Amino acid sequence: MDIEQILLAALLGGIFAGAGGGLGAFMAGFLPSSYRNVVIGGMAAGGLALSQIAVDALKSRSLGNEIHAELQQSRMFVIIEEEFPEEYAGFVREISQSKSDDSAFKLGNRFTTNLRKTHAEYLKSASSSKLLDFIEADRRLANAIRERDGDEMCSAFLLAGPGSLPNGLTPYAVEAELSVEALFLAISDGRDIDNPRSSPSEAEWVELLEQWQSEGATEDMVAALANPESAGANLCGAYLSFLTLLISYEAIEADAIRAEHMFQKAILN
Predict the structure, then answer these.
(1) Residue 219, CB half-sphere, CA atoms under 13 Å: how many?
(2) In which residue ranges of the chain is pLDDT below 70?
(3) Could you give the CA distance from residue 45 to residue 38 in angstroms, rounded to a whole number?
(4) Are 163 and 53 in contact (CB under 8 A)?
(5) What is the pLDDT of residue 169?
(6) What distance in Å separates the CA atoms of residue 163 and residue 9, rounded to the nearest whole number?
């Protein structure tokens, strides 16, 4: 069995929390009414469909304890085992018993997808540092795609996930894994704290958007996040600008907004 392909599948399951897809649904729910008139044609409500990537056939061989040893070569799985030991042990058992190439791949994807969605609520309790770590990792991933493949490919990734990229996540495996690691560390941190913040009010969102516009964001940039399916190549720049604001924002409610942003993305399919 090719552990590298299982790792890629697991990255796909986790990376949707780090990608920009579903921003229409996010902004539709939280964009203050005073800003909604900049969006023409309504808000996009689509999330991310499961991206498919072509993989070589997984070679059958006895796994036993070897699968654990091989998975531990990935820091992402080291973190998952440390923070979610029961779920990790169950995953290793399932992979070891997998009878087909396709089922092994789907198990890897489903594992991280379910893990982030099941525990997403803990992001509302995560510390400021862990929230910032994730948002910075998210920004690095999107920026790496932009620098290598341009705004169009970056925007396609944000809208449709890794399947839209010519070579999938392979050229960005380092950035992708760091993003997923930061996500699960934030979830674990929030679980330990378990003191969820209240959702930001409309007035707090207005303040954030006004700050963004004071730093150069245009109405077109706001509309790009609110309706990403119509934004074209402009989505990438708008998203990176928004993340930069989230990182630097210093209002009292900043962490509540960061946590809500992460939570809304983590629950995507």
Answers:
(1) 7
(2) 1-64, 100-102, 269
(3) 16
(4) yes
(5) 80
(6) 12
> Residue 186: which residues within 8 A CB-CB, separation 6 or more?
123, 126, 130, 131, 133, 134, 262
**CA angle at 46 for the pair 261 and 233, rounded to the nearest 5°:** 80
Condensed to tens digits (0 to 9), the pLDDT of residues 24-37 reads 444 444 444 544 44
Q: Given this model, what pLDDT does residue 258 score?
A: 95
CB 51 within 8 A of CB 12: yes
Q: How many of the other CB atoms lie within 10 Å of CB of 174?
A: 12
CA angle, 139 as apex, 134 and 140 as ends, to 5°? 95
Going from the C-alpha of 227 to that of each of 24, 180, 219, 231, the distances in angstroms are 5, 25, 12, 7
Alpha-carbon dihedral sign for residues 175, 179, 181, 182 = positive
Give CA–CA dist 117/119, Å, rounded: 6
pTM of structure: 0.79
Report helix, strand or coil for 220. Answer: helix
104: Cβ contacts below 8 Å, ≥ 6 apart:
1, 5, 6, 58, 95, 98
Measure the CA dihedral 202/37/223/232, to 10°.
Answer: 150
CA 138/CA 204 separation, integer angstroms: 23
- The half-sphere exposure of 224 on its side-chain side, counting CA atoms within 13 A, is 22
DSSP 3-state assignment of 210? helix
From the list 208, 255, 261, 232, the residue with the least C-alpha distance to 17 is 261
Q: Report d(CA 65, CA 42) in Å as an integer.
A: 52
The torsion angle over the Cα atoms of residues 102, 163, 262 and 4, rounded to 10 degrees, is 50
> What are the phi and psi torsion angles at 230 (to 5°)?
-105, 0
